[in-house]
Design brief:
Layout: H1 2-28, H2 39-48, H3 53-73, H4 78-81, H5 86-100, H6 106-124
Helix pairs in contact: 1-3, 1-5
């Protein structure tokens, strides 16, 4: 049972990180910068978005992800735990396809399958 609880911290970290990234993409996808805008204007806009409640929530999720990861690091070797973070990339890829109509092709599916197989193999090596 303790083994499952310890893994919960890894997956909680991944969950918060994924939620944070999806919120940022959702709120920022309505904006685009033109080539004529200066770097100062782009940063001023990005900093102004920090007042957006959804972006604030995303920052809180990022903080919670980091805290969960810190707890997970007290339970596992980093060489065991870190491969699980790939699940965040996979989840973002799949959810961005459904929420943002981003391209999901056979190469991404095959690559993702190889990554999942690798995580499974790595997890079998844990004592």
């Amino acid at each position: 049972m303790q083994f499952i609880i310890n893994h919960f911290y890894i997956f909680l970290s991944i969950f918060f990180a994924v939620c944070s990234q999806l919120i940022i993409k959702w709120k920022m996808s309505a904006f685009s910068f033109t080539i004529n805008e200066g770097i100062v204007d782009k940063f001023a806009f990005a900093f102004s978005m920090l007042l957006n409640p959804y972006i604030m929530l995303s920052i809180i999720f990022t903080l919670l992800s980091g805290l969960s990861w810190m707890i997970a690091m007290t339970k596992f070797d980093i060489s065991y735990a870190y491969p699980f973070t790939i699940l965040g990339f996979i989840t973002v890829m799949i959810l961005s396809h459904f929420f943002f109509n981003e391209n999901l092709n056979i190469y991404k599916v095959i690559g993702t399958s190889v990554i999942i197989l690798g995580i499974f193999i790595v997890s079998k090596g844990y004592k």
